[in-house]
Amino acid sequence: MIRIPVVRPLGSRAVCAAALSLLFSALPGISQGEDDADAAARTILQKADEIRFPISGFEVAVRIRSTEGGGAPEVREFKVLSKGNENTIVLTTAPASERGQVLLMKARDLWLFVPNVSQPVRLSLSQRLTGVVSNGDIARANFTGDYNATLLRKEKVDGEGHHVLELTAVDRGVTYHRVLYWVNERNFRPHKAEFYSLSGRLLKTARYEEFKSLGGRVRPTRLVLRDAVRAGEESVMEYSAMKLRDLPARMFSKDYLQRL
Predict the structure, then answer these.
(1) pLDDT of 27 over the 80 cut
(2) Please, what is the average pLDDT of the chain?
(3) Cα separation of 175 and 125, whole Å?
(4) Where are the domains of the chain?
(5) Cα–Cα distance measured from residue 226 to residue 206, given in angstroms and rounded to the nearest whole number
(6) Model confidence over 58-84: pLDDT tens digits?
(7) Mean pLDDT calculated for residue range 162-179
(8) How far does CA 9 lie from the centroid of its chain?
(9) What residues have CB less than 8 Å from 130, skipping those under 6 apart?
(10) Whose CA is closest to 195, among 207, 212, 213, 187?
């Protein structure tokens, strides 16, 4: 007698797993044996980071225009020198009264150097630099090293599909405890982000705008940050004059900056 195999319908969990496997197999950089969802989320995050800033050493000019409650805008300008995500120097170039102040980031340690003051001041990445901008917003080049990523869902934004990632801090030393991050499904460009405190409170939102050629590829040249706690506060970060640079490791030290 010939036995005919019985085909049972897949449960919803199995169907979901199969769909995830099919989707994530199209993303490069996912190794065998890893959890598909976690690996895919990490890959999406890495690709978005590479669009925001170069992986190698670079220099970029940053202009920050902050407004509060309809008052006159406050403008500050900086030059940022970065080598990977662990070494950054932020030089204040304007206003003239603050010119010469320097932020040095080594790993997640941050110091402020002020002219004519012998000892640097220790700061945290979450402290405000100006307006809605925190120190970590300008000093940390990417999210990959600071957060674990989970793919929550997909959403249509302005008619285009976007991955919605949940980023959770690897420790308390990073700028934000939790981030929701929208990344374009087609080209991996970052679209917007929401930043949350340890208590789950929404602190600020961000939109990545004006994608132009910068530092050898198309990147967002404008980041709009809005305070979610104090209505009417906004900071706009504009990036320009980006150059790839082979920056020596000796630059990123307290001794080197004190000599400057």
Answers:
(1) no
(2) 87
(3) 5
(4) 49-259
(5) 6
(6) 999 999 999 998 788 999 999 999 998
(7) 95
(8) 43
(9) 64, 66, 74, 76, 235
(10) 207
Could you tell me which of 133, 42, 159, 138 has the C-alpha nearest to residue 89?
A: 138
Region label for 107, one of left (φ > 0), alpha (ψ between -120 and 50) or beta (otherwise): left
The percent of residues in the chain predicted with pLDDT above 70, rounded, is 86
How much is the average pLDDT of 13-17?
40
Q: Look at domain 49-259 and name its CATH class.
A: mainly beta
For 70-135, the three-class secondary structure string (H helix, E strand, C coil) is CCCCEEEEEEEEEECCCEEEEEEEECHHHCCCEEEEECCEEEEECCCCCCCEEECCCCEEECCEEH
Tell me which residue of 136, 104, 117 sits closest to 254, measured CA to CA. Answer: 104
Q: What is the three-class DSSP state of 10? A: coil
- Which residues are CB-neighbours of 51 under 8 A, at least 6 positions away? 188, 189, 190, 217, 218, 219, 220
Do the Cβ atoms of 66 and 74 come closer than 8 Å? yes
Question: Could you tell me the two tokens for 18?
Answer: 């199969």
CA distance 38 to 58: 29
Q: What is the pLDDT of residues 186-207, one digit of tens each?
A: 999 999 999 999 999 999 999 9
